[in-house]
Amino acid sequence: MALLRAALAQPLSPRPALPVRHPPTSLTGSRFILDFSLPPHPGPGAPRREYPRIEATARRGARTESAKVRNRRLQKKFNGTATKPRLSVFCSNRQLYAVLADDHNKKILFYGSTLQKSICGDPPCGTVVSRRRRLLHLEFGLYSGGTLELEFASPARPAQEAARKVGEELVRVCNELGISEVSYDRNGFARGDKMMAFEVPVSQHGFLPR
Question: What spans are recorded as compositionally biased (Basic and acidic residues) (predicted)?
């Protein structure tokens, strides 16, 4: 009873104000206009509602990171062993590199490229060599209208021929080591002219699927 009396003794809180209804200013049939009193605008100096700040930043080296992630994922698929090593091929705009690796024992069984003189000869593939022999000392201004003889070396071997020789050397090393199958890893490179020329002797030996 004491609590009830104390509650009744407290003054009641005022009710919120209802929208003011003004008399209709224009009548069109049964339609009329109501005017509601809206709260005033807080103004330019009033504090605004805070929203969470969103920042978007681009990753640096996204292409390089994606290539590394892709190669790391492919290494799980092309995992070389002693009996079935991994044949990894890297092809640039001018040269081709091939590595036969045993990932379990961490050994390189074969390495070949189109820059090796032992495989592609001298000069290596992709270099155009021109040698000029002068009969007169032109650098000293002693040229007096005589004939000028130019001697050019043999033209460079095409890149496809050098890539094919790398494939043949790979097959020879595999025969010496007694390897009958490989795990071919192109590292995501498309089959261009050098890549296809390299795959011809390798596929003829039975390493690559037809």
Answer: 47-68
